[in-house]
Amino acid sequence: MADLSTRLAGLTLRNPVIAASCEYTMTERGILACIDAGAGAVIAKSINEVPAAARQLDVADYTLLDSGLSRTPWETATGHETLFNRSGLAQTGVDDWMATLDRTQRYAAARGAAVIGSVTVASADGAAELAARMAEAVPAVEINIGAPHGREASAVRQLTEADGVAHYIRTVRAAVDCPVIVKLPGQASDIPGMARAAVDNGADAVAMIGRLNGFVPDLETWEPELGSWGAVGGPWMLPVSLYWLSKCYRHLSGTVPLIGTNGARGGLDVARFLLSGAHAVELASLLLLKGASALTEVLSDLNAYLDAHGVDRVSDVIGASVHRAREYGEIEPLVPARRPWPQP
Ligand SMILES: Cc1cc2nc3c(=O)[nH]c(=O)nc-3n(C[C@H](O)[C@H](O)[C@H](O)COP(=O)(O)O)c2cc1C
Q1: Sign of the CA dihedral 92, 102, 171, 231?
Q2: For residue 336, cis peptide bond before it (omega within 30 degrees of 0)
Q3: Residue 335 lies in a domain
């Protein structure tokens, strides 16, 4: 069996499979279930300093869509559905939340895993203050500056420019000593530039990319699904996430640990993220669709894949496909030219 351990922002995780910040990791029970299922780390549900962000959870709603964009029941979910939703942040009071982080981190550490605190930003100062409190309990914090809901509600902010990233991360870095992971948005024109700004201002690792915003009319009622705009993600997102991840891996010359997220629904998708430059992979939708036990299956499929390819260590595959990728200008003309579609 391959050595699955991975180094990430000063932490050594027992494996690269991370339970991502979401409603499943919003309770002590959910966090512990992910650790018991084998996760290398669990990123707790985000909080921030704005009460409206927690209230936003009162109007959260979630629907699953099949590949034809029709609603499909949760009970029969395969794990490959599109998840369309509104969301808000954890409603637990800060003191109680710190106690939860502390207890779950002790449990995780005894099992070679880690709990990571998360702030989905409103103000930079608020994020810095909360991150500093979290750092008393957990070994790392993730600062999410890319929440899609930031486009719909002012209780959280979505940053899309390198200057904003620099300001927020510099402010957080000045307040905490522990490793800082920065989570980038999925909708921005220069994601590698934002990754660079994060690293230059003190980030130890960069996670990418956030989910996108979506809108889905019901063809019978003409009402939009959920009655509003929302955030959307699915397996169809994976190539886009891998695109930005691999571009950032190349842009940063593989020197900064990157974390992949958005679109992984199984162990082979985790392998695709690793091959594209990720040191670890965050999964949320799969958890929400199938529960923590899905992570055990992800790990088993990842192990089987690595064994079948004679890989001894996860670190041997990180970025392997990016090293093989060529720029368009480096590709020789194809003779004969490829025209695979039906010819007119
Ligand atoms: C319902 C829901 C709630 C989420 N809440 C948070 C959050 O509080 N903080 C955060 O950083 N990311 C949050 N995310 C984003 C996930 O952590 C993850 O990065 C994203 O869903 C993409 O991964 P996936 O394709 O495995 O779902 C949330 C995602 C979903 C679906």
Answers
A1: negative
A2: yes
A3: no
Give dist(CA 134, CA 128) in Å, integer: 10
Residue of the CA atom closest to atom 18 of ligand 1: 284
Q: What is the pLDDT of residues 147-161, one digit of tens each?
A: 999 999 999 999 999
Residue written as tokens 């608020």?
126
What's the whole-model pTM score? 0.98
CA distance linking residue 44 with residue 340, whole number of Å: 47
CATH number reported for the structural domain that contains residue 88 in this entry: 3.20.20.70
Q: Does the C-beta of 283 come closer than 6 Å to ligand 1? A: yes
- The answer to whether the CB of 158 is under 6 A from ligand 1 is no
**What does the alpha-carbon distance between residue 238 and residue 197 come to, in Å, rounded to a whole number?**
24
Is residue 226 within 8 A of residue 84, CB to CB? The reply is yes
- 171: Cβ contacts below 8 Å, ≥ 6 apart: 124, 125, 127, 128
Instruction: Show the domain range for 283.
Output: 6-330
pLDDT digits (tens, 9 = 90+) for 176-230: 999 999 999 999 999 999 999 999 999 999 999 999 999 999 999 999 999 999 9
Half-sphere exposure of 154 (CA within 13 A, CB side): 0
Q: Tell whether 196 is covered by a domain.
A: yes
Give the span between the Cα atoms of 84 and 198, in whole angstroms: 29
Does residue 49 sit within a domain? yes
How far is 47 from 45, CA to CA, in rounded Å? Answer: 7
Residue 28 placed within a domain: yes
- Total domains present in the chain: 1
Distance between Cα 23 and ligand 1 center (Å): 8
